[in-house]
Structure prediction request, 190 residues.
Amino acid sequence: MVRPGGRSARVQEAVHAAVRELEAELGRDALTVPLVAARAGVTPSTIYRRWGDLRELLSDVAVERLRPEAPPDDQGELAADLMTWAEQFLDEMASPPGRAYIRDALLGDPDGSNAGRCSAYASDQIDVILSRAGERGERAPDVEAVIDHVVAPMMYRILFRPGPEPDSLDAEYARQLVTGLLDKEASGGG
Prediction:
C-alpha cells in the first residue's frame, strides 16, 4: 500500500514537476523518459516501472492538470452557479492547453482509468453545485442530466468538432446548454 506523502508521493511530484518544467523549456516533442528522469532525480527504470512509458506518464500529468483546484463558485442560485461553472469548464477545456491535456489524458489511458478520473472531477464539481441548490430549496437536475446535456455536448465539440470556427465554443454556447437543460427540467421533461 502506498503511503500518502511517502516516497511514492515525492517521486510522483518530482516527476510531474520535471515534465511540466521540461515541457515549458523544450516543448512536448523533446520530452524523453531519460530526460524527465534526470530532471526529477530518479532513474528511468523508476518511470518505466511506475508509468510504463512516456505516453502514460504524460497522461498521468495531464489528468492532474485537469483536476479543479477549488470548488465551483457559489453565485447564490442554481442557474448562475451552473452557467458560471459551464463557462469556465468550456473555456479551460477548449483552450489549446486544455485540448492538449485532454488528448494526453486519453492517449496514455489503456484501461480507461484516467478518463474515469476526469469524469469524476466534473461530476464532483457538478455535485457541489447541485447540493448547494438543494440546500437553498431549489429544484435541480441530477448530475447525470448535467453531464448528458451540458458536459457531453461540450466535450464532443472540443474533441471531434473543433472546426474552423473555434469561437463557436464560447460562453454563449455554455449558457445555451445550461438554459436548455434548466428549461427542460422546469417543464418536467428532465
In short: The chain has nine helices and no strands.
